[in-house]
Amino acid sequence: MVAGVMRAQVQHWIDAGAARGQPHLLGITGPPGTGKTTLTAAIVRSFGAERVGVLPMDGFHLANAVLERLGRRARKGAPDTFDAAGFVVAVQRVAALRPGDPPVYVPDFDRALDEPVAGSHALLAGLGLIVVEGNYLGLDTAPWSRIRALLTELWYLDSSTDERLARLTARHIAGGRSAEAARVYAAEVDGANAGLVADARTNSDRVLGGEILAEFE
């Protein structure tokens, strides 16, 4: 990849989306722990929050109390631990934004609370680009399968298994798990989810490695 190519592409989408009053939607997907949120934040910092919005899939995690009631808390992060239909509707709403429309408010995920937080992002037609970020954007199963057609482009962010597991283990330890429990969760629960995401890799337009981050720092 020629240095700066992806940055130039994002700049083009931002300018074109702002000019037409309808944001482009860039999807960033990939297995857990590949750095999707880090890349998304770098894009926002690089171009400014007044031009780039974020719609994070993790904001649609089911609350822990709901997961407990459903018996799914031990598998948190699997596709059926999200409000997938609600997430799809949110993507559809931002894809339909036009000048004069009210903001679309979407949730984010607070890692300290380990819970979603409602209304964290206000997405407006005046934004040039909205980054839709999450593990399951490329899945072929409904309702996830409705997302791909709404995106201008879908990027798959990849990394080595060792790097991904190290990040996930550190994340789970920071979230309160013991070192051993964190390693097991990263390898087994996150590992199973990573396999699902990897199986849908061919539905992405581009497969990128961690070096892409340098274009936006």
What is the topological layout?
Elements: H1 5-20, E1 24-29, H2 36-47, E2 52-56, H3 64-70, H4 84-95, E3 104-110, E4 115-123, E5 129-133, E6 153-157, H5 161-174, H6 179-199, E7 206-208
Parallel strand pairs: 1-5, 1-6, 2-5, 6-7
Antiparallel strand pairs: 3-4
Helix pairs in contact: 5-6
Count of DSSP-assigned helices = 6
Spans of at least 5 consecutive residues whose pLDDT stays below 50 are none
Name the shape in a single word: globular
For the CA atoms, what is the radius of gyration? 17 Å
> Largest sheet, order of strands side by side?
2-5-1-6-7
* Estimated helix fraction: 25-40%
What would you call the structural class? alpha/beta
DSSP summary, beta strand count: 7
Strand content: 15-25%
Mean pLDDT: 94
Question: What summary fits the major beta sheet?
Answer: 5 strands, parallel
The H-and-E topology, N to C, reads as: HEHEHHEEEEHHE
Please report the distance between the alpha carbons of the first and last residues: 17 Å
In short:
The protein has 217 residues and is an alpha/beta fold. It is 38% helix and 18% strand. The protein has helices at 5-20, 36-47, 64-70, 84-95, 161-174, 179-199; strands at 24-29, 52-56, 104-110, 115-123, 129-133, 153-157, 206-208.
Can you offer a commentary on this structure?
The protein has 6 helices and 7 strands. The strands form 2 sheets. A 5-stranded parallel beta sheet has the order 2-5-1-6-7, with helices on both faces. It has a two-stranded antiparallel ribbon with strand order 3-4. It is globular, with a radius of gyration of 17 Å. The relative contact order is 0.22.
